[in-house]
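Database export, one record per block. Field names are fixed; values are copied verbatim from the stored entry.
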Amino acid sequence: MKIADILAPDAVLYNVKAKNKKQLLSALAALAAKKTKLEETVVLDALVERERLGTTGIGFGVALPHTRLPKLKKIFCGFATSEPVDFEAVDNKPVDLAFVLLVPEEAGADHLKALARLSRLLRNEETVANIRKAHSAKELYDLVIQNDRDD
């Protein structure tokens, strides 16, 4: 599975005006609801509930909020940049890059494969630095897809 298989060019938000974690999750939920045809409140509630189990702020300004949803037909990935917000990340640093991952309840190992793929991309400091320099949603998408390698 490649990120391009789950992230569409129109599922990227550039410079979301979020002041806190809830607002950033809300922006991601609105994007996901629009693209998946699920109710925004269902998506947001699921993401907030997942955050109650433990933060998805993985550190270095990056968050990977993810959850399983029963009515979802296929894996959805969205991406947003924002002003840095407190996301209660593991390193206590604010988050400015957030990938949202929604998976069908029966997705099984595909959920873990998608998370691993995104994690591999976001472990590359040069890639993350370049993503932070982007000036548009298109540029963000292109950088993510170009840097999604198997190495």
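Remark 1: Residues 10 and 73 are 18 Å apart (CA to CA).
Remark 2: The helical segments are 21-36, 40-53, 109-122, 125-132, 137-146.
End of record.
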